[in-house]
Amino acid sequence: MPPSELLLDGNAIGGLLREIFAVEMTSASSTCGGCGAVHAIGRLDVYANAPGVVARCPACGQVLMRIVRGRGRVWLDLAGMRCLQIADPDT
Amino acid sequence: MALTVERLDDGEVSPYLTDEVTLGDRLELRGPIGGYFVWEANQASPPLLLVGGGSGVVPLMAMIRHRRASGSRVPARLLYSARSVDDVIYRQELERLAALGDGMTVYLTLTRAQPAGWRGFARRVDQEMLHEVAWPVQESPLTFVCGPTAFVEAAAGTLVELGYDAGSIRTERFGPTGR
């Protein structure tokens, strides 16, 4: 099976992100630290067939988010993302 | 509440949900999860184009039911690709909804087998088909595409080739289906 068929998108990690963040995250928007493109989390390219989950910028391919779970902990690496804009649950 | 499950023989979850779960079993649910691939009915919504491959029709059906339940008259077109007529999920409901004449049109394409006298499309979704079915670009339609990854990539890419604004196309890919 070609790897391209294993590509998912950010909708697939809505449940995982909901366990980490306090709000619904697929409609949050991210700014790529590499190219500056802004995309909803739901639109990110997601690869989940790995020890962790990797979300990449659909415009330039930069890794925006890595999530690894294990030993009772979650590691969330957002080093490639410049900004994450989340709906304010109080408004 | 209703769950639609397509059984995949080598799937991790669908054989359990279709073969093992029985009446009276207790299930724990989380959610709703996912606000991105969602359509909210309101008067100002532009025309809606829904493109589904296989069980990718399921979230689109939720939008169609929401549209009906809210009394929305937003013009909507569904292009639904299935392998054969027996694979068409919600077939009777779609026929009923399309017959209401409330601005909803259903287009089916059957890619592998067609019944005798079939008048719909009989091939994979391609540029010619989308050109025929999709709203003119000038109407600034809102588009939702859901299906296997290869289907979504092809359909969304073709819509962009036809002049659709990539930002107006929302996609949900569920990977390969193993067939």
Protein described:
With 91 residues, chain A is mainly beta. Chain A has one helix at residues 14-20, and strands spanning 8-9, 29-32, 38-40, 45-47, 53-56, 63-70, 73-77, 81-85. Chain A has one domain (3-85). In chain A, 8% of the residues lie in helices and 37% in strands. In chain A, strand 4 and strand 5 (53-56) form a beta hairpin. By secondary structure, chain B is of the alpha/beta class. Chain B has five helices and five strands. The mean pLDDT of chain B is 94. Classes of the chains: A mainly beta (91), B alpha/beta (179). The A-B interface holds A 1, 4-12, 14-15, 18, 24, 26-27, 40-43 and B 30-31, 33-38, 148-150, 153, 170-176.
Give the topology:
The complex is a heterodimer of chains A (91) and B (179).
Chain A: E1 8-9, H1 14-20, E2 29-32, E3 38-40, E4 45-47, E5 53-56, E6 63-70, E7 73-77, E8 81-85
Chain B: H1 14-20, E1 48-53, H2 57-69, E2 76-82, H3 91-99, E3 104-110, H4 127-133, E4 142-147, H5 149-161, E5 169-173
Parallel strand pairs in B: 1-2, 1-4, 2-3, 4-5
